[in-house]
Amino acid sequence: MDLDPRMFDPVCPSGALPFQIGDKWTAMVVLCLEHGPRRFTELRVPLAAVTPKVLAQTLRAMQRDGLVVRTAYPEHPPRVEYELTDLGRSLLTLIAAVRAWSAEHLPRLLAAREAHDAATGA
Fold first, then answer.
1. Could you tell me which residues are beta bridge partners of residue 69?
2. What is the phi/psi pair of residue 96, to 5°?
3. Tens-place pLDDT, residues 97-122
4. CA within 13 Å, CB half, 115
5. CA 98 to CA 51: how far, in whole Å?
6. Host H or E run for residue 80
C-alpha cells in the first residue's frame, strides 16, 4: 500500500497534535505532578538535568495545550504552583503504557543499538 502524500497536510487536524508529549521532559513533568500541585523549585529537584529555561519552556507549552494550570498566589514572596488538568492527567495512562513497553523491550532495544554502533563504528 502506498503512503498517502497528504497524510501530513498542514491543514489536517492531526497537525494540531501536541507533539511535545513525546519530548524529553513533558512525560517527566507529568509524573512529577501526578500526586498534586508543585512549585517550580520542587520540580527542579527530580528534574535536575533540565535547565530552568527548558523547564519553563516545557511548562509554558504544557499550559498552552491545556495539560497544566499555573496558579499564582498573591503572597509575598510570590508563590506559583503547577497542576495537571484532567487533560494532562489523561497522559498518565499513555506514560504507563510506554513505561511497561520499555520494561519489556528495553534490553532488546539497547542490544540493537549496541550491535548497530559496533557494525557502523559509531
1. 83
2. -60, -40
3. 988 998 899 999 999 999 999 999 87
4. 6
5. 24
6. strand 79-84
